[in-house]
Structures are given as C-alpha cells and as structure tokens.
Amino acid sequence: MNYHQKFDAYRNLVEEWLKERITVPELPEKTLFEAMRYSLTAGGKRLRPVLSLAVCDMLGGDREAVMPFACAVELIHTYSLIHDDLPCMDNDDYRRGKPTNHKVFGEAMALLAGDALLNTACEIMLEAVLADEKDALRKAAAARLIMEAAGASGMIAGQVIDMESEQTAVSYDQLCRMHSLKTGALIRASILSAALICGADERTTQALERYGKLIGLAFQIKDDLLDVEGDAAVLGKSTGSDVRNHKSTFVTLLGTDKAKELLKSTVEEAVKALEGLQNTDFLIHTAAYIAERKK
C-alpha cells in the first residue's frame, strides 16, 4: 500500500466513525444536527485524526482506544472553521468548495452548530475515559491535552492574535507564535494525545512533539503560499483573502521565494526530528505531503 492509499484508508476509517456518531434525529431541533453534519461532512483532509491513527500504528497501539480522541480533534477543528468563517471573524462565503455554514443555516445556527461540535467532542472523550478503568488516567490526560490545545492558551489565543493583528504589521516571532497556537496547537495535540494513550516513552514523545510543532508551522506556511498561488477551484475557497484583510503572513513578511525556502527547511527539520524512531515512513511522507499539497 502506497502513502496515498494508506492516507485514504485512515481517512475512510475516520469518515465512517464520524458518520455513525453525528446523526440527524427526528426532533424539533434537527436543524442543529443538519448544520453540524453539513460542515463535518464537507470533505476535509482529516489530517489531524489521520496523524493520530498513524502515531497509534507507529507505536503498536490500539486504534479503537485512540479513535474517539482522534475524531474529537476533528470535531473541534470543524467548529473552529465554522466560527472563523462568520461575518464577525473572516466573513468567508465558501469553505471546502461549498457555501459556508452561516450562508446555508444563518449566523445564529452556525454559531450554535460550532458550539455543539465542541461540546460533542468533550462528550466523546469523557465517554471513552469513563468506559476504560484500566487506562482512564492516560485517556483523561489526553483529553485535557486536546482541550488545552483548543482553548485560551492554544487555538483560541492564536485566533485572538490573528484578529487583533489585522491591518497591523507584526514581527516574524509574533507571526510564528500566532500560528503555533492557531494552527499548530491542534496538530500537535492530535499527535501527542495518541502517543500518550499508547504509552510512548519520554524520548519518543519529545521527538513527536518537535515533529508536530514543525509540521504545524509547515502547514501554515503552505496555507499562506496557497492563498497567493493556489487555484480557488481546487482549494474550495477564495484566494487572496489575506491581502484583502491586510493580514501579515509568511509571504507578506518574507516574500514568496523565502517563504518557499522556509517551508522546505521546516519540512526537512520535521523529518530529522524523527531520526532514531521506528516505523516513521508514514509521518515522513506526511511532512512532504503538507509541503506539496494543492489544497
């Protein structure tokens, strides 16, 4: 099985799990669940849960133990996209090639759908903790790690910096901090939560943490490049939004050529971080995929 086939196999497992979990009941509030499923099944890459499952396999762990936490991260990521697209944030009309949630269901329902996805993520993780007396402590620690990455010292903090930096020139260090929190925190959490559940030793955990930090940075650099050079039809969203919103990016700070050089060196460092670990082929290829992706 080649890399792309394996990625698709992981992604299919995630898709099936999510579809079974997030259903639309015949209740007066069914519109809420329709809004949740609309964004959740809109065709995302599922990079974060795929990374969780890949780390689990790398460590010889139990996929069933990791899957609820992997999918919880995807629910959190989806909620953040719904909120990020709202008029009070980035005011985007398209996401993954479809009208954004608020364009279909209205702003209030989109806000509530995002809230519900976040709360459902917590429910899923707590159910997994309560159902496993043997490894409950590890799973509780993984849940805490994920929620911290999503919260006021993680993703939300990065979003605040991003919002307050519009039409303001920021330093390179500030830009790196912003994206380490806004984009990188959940990517690291998807990797480290799986490592924690699977009982990784300290050396392995430190290597995976560095790898996660670097691919999170690479992911954002590539996003900034795609906003300038990408094809909107392939991306499924409009390009040039960073320029329109007067945002500082790796491209605006460094220029396109230097941003590409930084992307290349960051991916190389990510691969180097895995040296000495076993069964890392998929993670190595994922670093390259992040740099080469078209959307």
From TrEMBL:
Tell me if NAD is a UniProt keyword of this record: no
Q: Which Pfam families match?
A: polyprenyl_synt
Query: Which Gene3D superfamilies does the annotation name?
Result: Farnesyl Diphosphate Synthase
Q: What's an example GO cellular component term for this entry?
A: cytoplasm
Q: Which InterPro entries match?
A: Isoprenoid_synthase_dom_sf (IPR008949), Polyprenyl_synt (IPR000092), Polyprenyl_synt_CS (IPR033749), Prenyl_diphosphate_synthase (IPR053378)
Please indicate if the UniProt record lists Magnesium as a keyword.
yes
Give the enzyme class: transferase
For biological process, the GO terms are: terpenoid biosynthetic process
Q: What does the sequence similarity comment in the record state about its family?
A: Belongs to the FPP/GGPP synthase family.
> What's the protein called, per UniProt?
Farnesyl diphosphate synthase
Q: Which organism is it from?
A: Thermoclostridium caenicola
